[in-house]
Amino acid sequence: MSLPRQSISPLRQRMLEDMTLRKLSDKTQSAYVRAVRGFAGYLRRPPDTASAEDLRRYQLHLVETGVSPMSVNAAITGLKFFFEVTVERADALAKMSPVRVPHRLPVVLSREEVARLIECAGNDKYRAALSVAYGAGLRTSEVVGLKIGDIDSQRMVLRVDQGKGHRDRFAMLSPVLLQTLRVWWRTAHAQGKLLDGGWLFPGMNRVNPLTPRQLNRAIHAAAQAAGIDKRVSMHTLRHSFATHLLEQKVDIRVIQVLLGHKKLETTALYAQVATEILRQVISPLEGLPPG
């Protein structure tokens, strides 16, 4: 992670070095620095001088100003790293505690909605990217991180290099998805948009990959064009992939592997939104004798 040298204080430089030593991702490093910077802005003095009461008041400030539970917890996580690792003052966190995040079921599209969404994507590149997210169940970061060499048409798999948790895995590559990717490859190759061995979905400059923000803008535009009024994001396609597989009676442990989930409990959430399965269950009300 690089920042302009003139903007880095010795304290921040130490924190950056601590995060680099632990090989934290750039995204995590940015989040942790943002958390400490936000606290320093509230405190109006160097953050390493804060007391446990200062940190308690800051958490109260976040809650009272309407910051979401997930954002509050993200701030606590960043401050926890700073105080425990960088300044070695774990005692300062004594009065901070994570906020309970409300449990919400994921938004899932029907198969017809997924088909309309992909069809309404702006061009071949976005149609292919959305097809990968749904057809292989990949996260947005995993979609944009794909390279041409990650497509293994012999074994019919996609190689996911360093997905979430810094883990490599293989994702499924169906014949329909392979055909979609070939259509995109032919179009992009003819237009000189792809580098040999480069990104499968390059950005405006083919040296760089498409960004998650660009892909999210594309799916929001596609959802609007398709007339879908649900809260749609790229992760919605991953949720839909898992739910539809479960409705097809694919073993949940297989789905866990395909999604790259560490815990089966995470995958089991989809049993709550697999409506095809729910409709097959016979209510005990149906078995009551006539009354």
From TrEMBL:
Keywords: DNA integration, DNA recombination, DNA-binding. Gene3D superfamilies: 1.10.150.130, Intergrase catalytic core (1.10.443.10). InterPro entries: CB, DNA_brk_join_enz, Integrase-like_cat_sf, Integrase_catalytic, Integrase_recombinase_N, Integrase_SAM-like_N, Tyrosine_recombinase_XerCD. The keyword Electron transport does not apply. The keyword Metal-binding does not apply. It comes from the Bacteria. Residues 104-283 form the Tyr recombinase domain. Residues 6-87 form the Core-binding (CB) domain. Belongs to the 'phage' integrase family. PANTHER family: PHAGE INTEGRASE-RELATED, PROPHAGE INTEGRASE INTD-RELATED. This is Tyrosine-type recombinase/integrase.
